[in-house]
Amino acid sequence: MVNGVTYPENTDKNPTCFADRVYNDGSRFQLSKDLANNELYIWFKDNTWEIKGPFGPKASYPVRINIFDSRNQIIGGGDMQFSVLAKNIITLRRMSEKAFLEVFFRGDKLVFVMPGTVPNATVTLNGAAKRMVRALSECVKAFGSVDTSKKRKDEVPDLTAPAKGERI
What we know:
The chain has two helices and nine strands. It is of the alpha+beta class. A nine-stranded antiparallel beta sheet has the order 1-2-3-4-7-6-5-8-9.
C-alpha cells in the first residue's frame, strides 16, 4: 500500500509518501519519502524484537542490510546506522536514495543483520519491490504540487530511475 500524507494542522510534520507493507504478525516495513526535506528513509517494526535502547534519534547503532533477489541470491547491501524509536521499532535515515533504490527495485527480500543480541529480521517483498517503487514515485509526483514553507517544488525526485553502480 502506498499513501501520501499531509498534516495541515501540524506544521511540525512534513508531507510524506509511504510505501507500506504489513505482515501477518503486525510487523511493518515502510519505505518513506519526506517531501519537504527530500529524504528517503526506512521505518521498520518487528514484533519479535525487545531492543533495550537508548531510544531516540540521537543514539545510533550499526546495521547491515543485505538485499536478495527472487532466486535468493544476494544482489547488494551495505552498512548503515539506525535509531531505536521503541523496543521493536527502528528507523534508518539519511539513506543514499539512488544507490538504495537501484538494488531495492530488483530485490525480493531484505535481511537486517542486527548488532548484539537483537535477532536479525527478514523483510519479504514477494515480488512487490518494483510496484512499491513505482507507486511511491507516482505519490511523490502527485504531491509535488503540495506547498509547504520548507519545500521547493524543484526538489521532487524521479524515483523510477535510480542510478546504476552505487552501493548503499
